[in-house]
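Weekly sync, protein design subgroup
Attendees: M.S., D.O., the rotation student, P.L. (late)

Item 1: inverse folding check
M.S. brought a backbone from last month's batch and wanted to see whether the design step gives back something sensible before we order anything. D.O. pointed out we never logged the input encoding, so this time it goes straight into the notes. Structure tokens as presented (383 positions):
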């Protein structure tokens, strides 16, 4: 599972309320799977026609990627039991990835969420094997079931390697986290383990070229993916540490530009060009009506700007996502990423319950803080 990243690819459905996507790379690997399996089935069962080999190959590929979805759904089900929102599941070239809104707050939560995936794959492996026993004389059913049994068991074992971000790496992080009570240290240790495993896979794949075992070139690609993912996990810890102790009030802009709801989009575009501000609070008289930004403006064709008002395309008041001045900046960044928005108004509540917009926090402002603190930290470390 992964935090603070954007879903990508083609949406294919929704399961348990979770959107399912397929990455563009998945289309290529699915086609390759269908071809390889159909050829393998043809070699193993020469009595099958080409249509039968291809049919079984495609069906097996679909069931395998269904198994990957179930693997990710098992993570998601446990995460949701801990009140961690699962934003989406994406199938990509080497498996699946579940996006979550935040990291687990306890080591035992991380352990149980991570363990759920390999357990599900192992159970599926056993299930497919047991079902295959009921069709001893029908190779068209037993052969793909035995392959699915083997593939799911391999998926379970591979994911248990103690390298982040594999499930085994997350289990390893949970163990170190539980022992040290230090999440950042646990992530760095698991990330280092992930890099070692990634380098080992790359070396194995490259070494196989000398023995002309070209099938193992996949290990190089898997290793490169794991290496990049391990580096990203450590980078996220750096972000967490850099933003520690900061709140929305520390970085918000105190200037809260307002515009009237009846302003035309043409006038609004001129206001944006004149001031450079990309987000405005929309008012009707002295009442808050909504929020307007450049993204909403760009959704309307240019030749229709004169015919539409800000009120027609703004984010209405009841749909605005707010922040409190005391909200931790890391949590605020996670919410910005999860909602895929760039700015968030900061609201303070008076003793009488009235709400007042006191500022606006943008992703750019948080990134500037990250950059400045990183540069300052580097300068201090060289003193």
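Designed sequence read out in the meeting:
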């Amino acid at each position: 599972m992964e935090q603070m990243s954007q879903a990508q690819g083609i949406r294919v459905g929704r399961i348990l309320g979770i959107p399912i996507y397929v990455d563009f790379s998945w289309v290529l690997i699915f086609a390759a799977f269908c071809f390889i399996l159909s050829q393998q089935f043809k070699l193993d069962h020469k009595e099958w026609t080409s249509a039968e080999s291809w049919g079984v190959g495609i069906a097996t590929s679909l069931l395998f990627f269904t198994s990957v979805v179930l693997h990710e759904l098992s993570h998601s089900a446990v995460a949701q039991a801990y009140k961690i929102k699962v934003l989406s599941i994406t199938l990509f070239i080497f498996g699946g990835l579940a996006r979550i809104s935040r990291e687990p707050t306890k080591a035992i939560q991380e352990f149980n969420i991570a363990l759920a995936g390999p357990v599900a794959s192992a159970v599926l492996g056993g299930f497919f094997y047991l079902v295959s026993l009921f069709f001893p004389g029908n190779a068209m059913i037993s052969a793909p079931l035995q392959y699915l049994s083997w593939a799911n068991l391999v998926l379970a074992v591979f994911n248990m390697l103690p390298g982040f971000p594999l499930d085994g790496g997350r289990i390893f992080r949970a163990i170190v986290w539980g022992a040290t009570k230090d999440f950042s240290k646990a992530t760095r240790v698991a990330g280092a383990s992930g890099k070692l495993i990634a380098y080992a896979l790359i070396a194995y794949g490259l070494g196989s070229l000398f023995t002309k075992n070209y099938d193992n070139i996949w290990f190089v690609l898997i290793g490169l993916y794991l290496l990049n993912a391990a580096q990203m996990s450590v980078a996220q810890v750096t972000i967490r540490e850099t933003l520690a102790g900061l709140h929305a009030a520390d970085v918000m802009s105190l200037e809260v530009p307002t515009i009237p709801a009846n302003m035309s989009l043409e006038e609004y575009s001129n206001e944006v060009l004149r001031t450079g501000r990309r987000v405005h609070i929309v008012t009707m008289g002295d009442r808050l009506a909504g929020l307007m930004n450049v993204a909403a403006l760009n959704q309307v064709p240019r030749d229709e700007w004169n015919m539409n008002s800000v009120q027609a395309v703004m984010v209405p008041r009841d749909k605005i996502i707010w922040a409190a001045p005391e909200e931790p900046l890391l949590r605020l960044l996670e919410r910005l990423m999860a909602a895929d928005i760039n700015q968030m108004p900061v609201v303070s509540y008076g003793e009488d319950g009235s709400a007042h917009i006191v500022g606006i926090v943008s992703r750019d402002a948080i990134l500037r803080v990250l950059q400045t603190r990183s540069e300052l930290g580097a300068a201090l470390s060289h003193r």
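Discussion: The chain is about 60% helix and 15% strand. The longest strand covers residues 355-362.
Action: P.L. to compare against the previous round before Friday.
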